[in-house]
Prior knowledge:
By secondary structure, the chain is of the alpha+beta class. It contains five helices and eight strands. The chain has a six-stranded antiparallel β-sheet with strand order 3-8-4-5-6-7. A two-stranded antiparallel ribbon has the order 1-2. Residues 20-49 have low confidence and may be disordered.
Amino acid sequence: MVHIRGAVVAAVWAAVLAGPGAGPAAAAPAPAPGRGGPRTVLPAARPLGDRLEPAILYAMAHLGDPFAIGGDGPRSWDCSGLVQQAYRRAGVRLPRIAADQYRATKRVARRSLHRGDLVFWSGNGRASGVHHVAVYLGGERYIEAPRPGFQVRVSTFSRYRPNLYGRVR
Length: 169
């Protein structure tokens, strides 16, 4: 189980780094020759010195975990629980509820989003209507714990478009 989970995380991570519109050739790295047979070479990630990269890596390590209302780990999550625990790994303290997480961020425009920012969905376009949060990965992709019956996954703005954006302080 752990070996399979690691392979799935590596494959998804490679696809995320390949970027939007990348075909299977870009998402699945080519084998590299080496002693003892072929070896998979993954594209290089952004430097781990980036202060939010530990949060992203933590969230990515939980791809495939089930959604649970009120879930805050270690193996089942709701959206704000995953975000809170992931950012804790980067030394960032966030409140537990998505609307409060939005209030704790600095507002940014969609065109100004950076990897590690948070994206939010609000029914009324304000903090009082925030009902979902996810971690922005870049290229209009984000990692989320979507809803009951689904697992932690990487999604795109074309699937479910957020309408509020925030940067952790």
